[in-house]
Specification:
Layout: E1 2-4, E2 13-15, E3 17-25, E4 31-40, H1 42-104, H2 106-122, H3 129-158, E5 166-169, H4 170-180, H5 182-188, E6 191-193, E7 199-202, H6 204-220, E8 229-238, H7 239-245, E9 259-267, H8 299-309, E10 313-318, E11 324-331
Parallel strand pairs: 6-8
Antiparallel strand pairs: 1-2, 3-4, 5-7, 8-9, 9-11, 10-11
Helix pairs in contact: 1-3, 2-3, 3-8, 4-6, 6-8
Length: 333
């Protein structure tokens, strides 16, 4: 580097040269002088320095971004750790709730039912009709409370994702339901159409609970004087095909890269007003009074929770007096 002023009156500036040296020899091969060649490379050096400066600046910016991202990830990890601690606490509280619900809350109810029945059986001759009615109401209220506690327990269990998934035939589960409810099926003359259903990747106990809830729901809301008919179908297809086939299913509910088993569960019962198609899956939501139809309003909420545990989707359709259909979508893997 040389500091030069190119013209008179101009401020000297740094200029860069490459020099080469060539010896000059006389007739005796002795060096008598050195010839110096200078090639200016200022533009090349400036360009190289500019590139180096840009690279250094880019490196600093990258380091700052990495540091910032590291700090953000650290904050996220701390948040996840905190949420994980909260989740552990919630699980402990849930286990405590399950224990209390299973034992402490139900024990007084069992005693209320036992002693109410005993009084009605042994002391009814000396009681007025009003007294008998009061005890009967106490017994019915205790029974409803016990059913509510049992349903809340079932819902809390359904909130825990199924840890063990296995490939199971839906036909097997339907046969188990038929065997469990054989007396009810015979008494109500229920017809079940379900043949050659697919195998699905599910948690057996949770999915059996799901089918059981749908089955009992259909029986509960069957038409008076008309034998219940339940039809269950299934097929496996791509998410895109199923989404196009059922436009009412919210867009994006199914993953485009995933195949699903579509399970259709329909009945010929009283149906429901289409405006309640999402409300029926909410906890404690009832479309009828307990005097009209017994229940706690938790059964379908449990169904929805189990579907969510399986990373699937469910949609209900129905019309008053024309039955209801539940379309279930479960990933094949």
């Amino acid at each position: 580097m040389i500091t030069l002023g190119r013209d008179e009156g101009l401020i000297p500036e740094h200029r860069y040269f490459n020099f080469s040296y060539q010896p000059m020899y006389d007739e005796n091969r002795k060096i008598y002088s050195i010839l110096v060649f200078g090639y200016e490379v200022t533009d090349q050096v400036n360009a190289r320095n500019k590139v180096a400066e840009i690279q250094e600046q880019h490196s600093k910016e990258l380091e700052e971004k990495v540091l910032q991202r590291t700090l953000e990830l650290s904050d996220v990890n701390k948040l996840l750790y905190k949420k994980n601690e909260d989740l552990v606490k919630m699980n402990i509280e849930l286990e405590s709730f399950n224990f209390i619900s299973s034992h402490d809350l139900q024990e007084p109810l069992r005693k209320i039912q036992t002693f109410s029945n005993r009084i009605l059986e042994t002391e009814s001759s000396g009681m007025s009709d009003n007294g008998k009615d009061y005890f009967s109401r106490i017994n019915n209220a205790a029974r409803r409370m016990q059913t509510l506690i049992e349903d809340l327990l079932a819902y809390s269990h359904a909130s825990i994702p199924g840890r063990i998934l296995e490939m199971i035939s839906l036909d097997t589960i339907i046969e188990e339901i038929k065997l469990e409810f054989k007396d009810t099926i015979r008494e109500k003359n229920v017809t079940i159409h379900a043949e050659k259903l697919d195998n699905v990747h599910i948690n057996h106990s949770q999915f059996r609970q799901l089918i059981t809830n749908l089955f009992t729901n259909s029986l509960k809301f069957s038409k008076s004087g008309i034998p219940p008919t339940i039809t269950i179908k299934s097929k496996i297809a791509t998410a895109g095909f199923l989404q196009d086939e059922n436009p009412a299913l919210p867009a994006g509910r199914l993953l485009d890269t995933q195949d699903y088993c579509h399970i259709s569960f329909s009945d010929n019962g009283i149906g429901f007003d289409p405006q309640y198609k999402t409300k029926i899956f909410e906890v404690f939501q009832r479309l009828h009074t307990k005097e009209e139809y017994a229940g706690t309003g938790i059964g379908l909420a449990i169904v929805k929770k189990i579907i969510e545990n399986h990373k699937g989707a469910i949609k209900a359709t129905g019309q008053l007096g024309k039955g209801a259909t539940f379309d279930i979508y479960i990933p094949t893997v």
